[in-house]
Amino acid sequence: MTQQTSRKAIVVFDIDGVVRDVSGSYRRAIADTVEHFTTQAYRPTPLDIDQLKSEGVWNNDWEASQELIYRYFETQGQSRKQLQLDYNAIVAFFQSRYRGPDPNNFTGYICNEPLLLQPSYLEQLTQAGIAWGFFSGATRASANYVLEKRLGLESPVLIAMEDAPGKPDPTGLFATVRELENGIEQKLAIVYVGDTVADMYTVEKAQALDSSRTWIGVGVLPPHVQETAARSDAYSETLIAAGAAVVLRNVQELTPRQIQELVSSSTQSLV
Questions:
Q1: Which residue, among 153, 238, 235, 244, has the nearest Cα to 193 in the 3D structure?
Q2: I want to staple 42 with a disulfide (CB 3.0 to 4.6 A). Which of 72, 110, 142, 143 is the partner?
Q3: How far is CA 245 from the centre of its chain?
Q4: Keywords for this entry (predicted)?
């Protein structure tokens, strides 16, 4: 997003909970799906979903929905083998709520997601010599809907669900970085911004696999946990325990100056 010679750092953004508020869309679709497949016996609360996500391996919301269904029936004395859930049916129902019944014309919950950043913020990063792109577990269609249609970005660097294994596997993060580096030899520091434990674990795994550069995890509090101070504090502590260098209330608090300060302090700590 900037001239190669002027680059100072690379920032990669998660999308859900960072670029857009998904509490009334993805998370609502999870609750709808679990409720449907438990025949209205159980609808998970936002806290239930957060607790599952805090385990760090349920970044895929289809899989998270299935897991919550399994766990409910286990509390009723049924084993997973007995249930034989149809994963494809779970995905189809979820998508009918989130995206809408027509895959080519979105009419579902996705249409009402509040944006959490503005294009002007990304332009500030570009002007400061900071390259940026996106690595998300969302489908490419869903990610492009918010990035291109809602934010008006033109062909941004994006690695989506179809392009890489799910987080916390860092393969997709590495792929995003390669596209943003575009062949330059300098090993720039990488900042990955996310709102879940899986996002922070992704950074730690990237660091373990490539220690030749600095990897920094920045946590963002998704809007639904900011309703009370206690909830915000607990969520912040969870992200920090998972490896976040700092936790912000909104992604736009990650200014070019703060990015440079994070990079400098991380580099010094490695010396």
A1: 244
A2: 72
A3: 16
A4: Hydrolase
Angle at which helices 26-37 and 46-53 cross, to 10°: 100
Instruction: Quote the tokens at residue 231.
Output: 């909830």
Residues 212 and 220 sit within 8 Å (Cβ to Cβ):
no
Alpha-carbon distance 170 to 208, whole Å? Answer: 10
What is the torsional sign of CA 89, 110, 176, 18?
negative
Q: What is the C-alpha end-to-end distance of the chain, expressed in Å?
A: 30
Q: Which residues are CB-contacts of 221 (< 8 A; sequence separation ≥ 6)?
A: 195, 232, 235, 236, 247, 248, 249
Q: Are 193 and 18 in contact (CB under 8 A)?
A: yes
Query: For the chain, what percentages of helix, strand and coil (3-state, to nearest 5) are there?
Result: 50, 10, 40
Q: At 19, give phi and psi (nearest 5°).
A: -90, -35
Residue that the structure tokens 């995890």 belong to: 217
**Sequential pLDDT tens for the chain (271 residues):** 444 445 689 999 999 999 999 999 999 999 999 999 999 999 999 999 999 999 999 999 999 999 999 999 999 999 999 998 999 999 999 999 999 999 889 999 999 999 999 999 999 999 999 999 999 999 999 999 999 999 999 999 999 999 999 999 999 999 999 999 987 778 899 999 999 999 999 999 999 999 999 999 999 999 999 999 999 999 999 999 999 999 999 999 999 999 999 999 887 665 4
